[in-house]
Amino acid sequence: MKKELIQLIREKEIQLAKLKEHIDKSSVCSDLYNKVVLEKAILKKELEDSKRNKIVEGIRSIIPRKKTLICDYFKTK
Asked: What is the pLDDT of residues 33-76, one digit of tens each?
């Protein structure tokens, strides 16, 4: 799964390099370039999400963390 995502991201980068030369020449190329940029961003987010440990993230969301308030910095001892 991760290797496939990395390969797809590389393919999008190649497409972007080719399209970048023709952005100014055609609105179709410009639109296609923007579409490929979005697709690449989606793939990168999927890759990032696949690297996270889902179990640890679930536990962190359940356990409440004490929030530091600004007044906590000014407490006198």
From this structure: 999 999 999 999 988 888 777 777 777 677 777 777 777 777 66
- Please give the model's pTM, rounded to 2 decimal places: 0.64
> Cβ(50)–Cβ(5) under 8 Å?
yes
Residue 33 has a CB neighbour count (10 Å cut-off) of 18
Rounded Cα gap, residues 61 and 64, in angstroms: 7
- Distance separating alpha carbons of residues 9 and 11, to the nearest angstrom: 5
Q: Is 44 exposed, middle or buried (0-12, 13-18, 19+ CB in 10 A)?
A: middle
